[in-house]
Amino acid sequence: MKGWAPVYKTDLLYRAEIVKAVLQDNDIAAVVVDKRDSNYQIGHYEVHVAADDVLKAIKLIQDDISFE
């Protein structure tokens, strides 16, 4: 995925989907990338955004999203 950069990593799909939805609600295009090994179910999910939106996305994630 050229021109895209990871801004969030998690082991839980639902968290990645929530982050993606929040970013999209704020007009930032985002995709969830499955980095898990399908044979052994190890790995993680990453949320990627366009390179131009990385700083805005990271700030939004830090300020507006909490899973605790």
UniProtKB/TrEMBL annotation:
UniProt domain DUF2007: residue ranges: 4-63
Name of protein: DUF2007 domain-containing protein
Listed InterPro entries: DUF2007, N-reg_PII-like_a/b
One Pfam family, short name: DUF2007
Superkingdom per UniProt: Bacteria
